[in-house]
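User: ok so my PI wants both of these folded by tonight, can you help

Assistant: No problem, let's get them done. Here's the first:
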Amino acid sequence: MEVCPTNAIIRTEYDTVYIDPNVCIGCKYCVSGCPFGVIDIGLFTGTAEKCTLCYDRLQVGQQPACAQACPTDCIEFGDVDELMAKAKEREKQLQANGESRAQIYGDSDILGGLNVFYLLLDKPEKYGLPANPQLPQKNMLGGYWSSILSFIGIGLVSLLSFRTRGQRKQQEETQDINL
């Protein structure tokens, strides 16, 4: 959301993230800025696309199709706090049964907590998830400093150039007067 120049990426009233295809200009900033790599550019539309968590279904009181259709109830939709409590209970059960690697991916340790989270039995990388995702502004701090230092450097070079030019001009005027 932070890198989109047109504000096409919004957080909905359901706390989901939605990309408005009518506002997206297809600049691809969101593709490189997404810490989870879930945004792609549509082949036919040329705009950014990602799962909407069935925003249209949520608006009419239904749950996302994946949660409704999941035959094993592995995908659940509802209040984040209630689902997190349920996931933590299941994590404890798994660990008590010898699954020492069981972990919740997306709890407060990942970007302060996610609204979509997973109960994993292995490292996140095994599931195609980044181990330590970072928001774009955290990755850009070095770029900001280099821009500021470059600006200062250009300013100093410009000042020295003008000063040298002024001194040269003054010397030429002094020589013209002496002749």
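One down. Here's the second:
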Amino acid sequence: MATQGAFTEIASLAGDPARAGMLHALLDGRALTASELAQAAHVTPQTASGHLTKLAAGGLIAVEKQGRHRYHRLASPAVARMLESIMQVAADARPRAIVTGPRDKALRAARTCYDHLAGHLGVALADSMIANNQIELTLDAGIVTEGGATLFDRLGIALEPRKSGRSKRILCRPCLDWSERRPHIGGALGAALCAHCLTSGWIRRVSGSRAVSVTTKGRQKFREYFGVDT
């Protein structure tokens, strides 16, 4: 029954409103300070400290020290996938009469899912690469074809799996998109593509949100390389 106990512990940790707010704030893949997370969760710094201690002890977040500061991030891509799955279930259970606001529309259009692209943009890129036989996705795995290797070489994206802890991170995998209900690209490849889009100025982060906006350059490049109009 140890597994059931661990499940109960994780569910309790993620289910608290303040801690859920902190975890949601970390879903864009960046590391944040306790003060930033306290603001995101609408709690005092003292209260935030207690919540962060519990999240770290439960293995949901990792803490890194840099000089005098301590930064918090999600412990692994698996935690991000768990949170996205919960959001998908919550969206399915939500009454259909609710009308989303502009912020929700921005998140649905394009956002980061931990360290890779999600929303309509992320799914459109996956659809394009599948249609052009550049990647192949099953329910729980993915491969990059020779055509895909050529594309990513043109983009300057290395296809070597990234190391995560003691093991190598999976190169390519599907990640079910909670708003589109179809897969976008996760794994090391998804992370590398997202990083490339950010550093190349194709997309920009939207302050205070996981949403990203596509730049004029990005619209040109997404059309040129993927045939995707944004």
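DSSP finds ten helices and twelve strands in the chain. Confidence is low (pLDDT under 50) at residues 98-102, 162-167. Good luck tonight!
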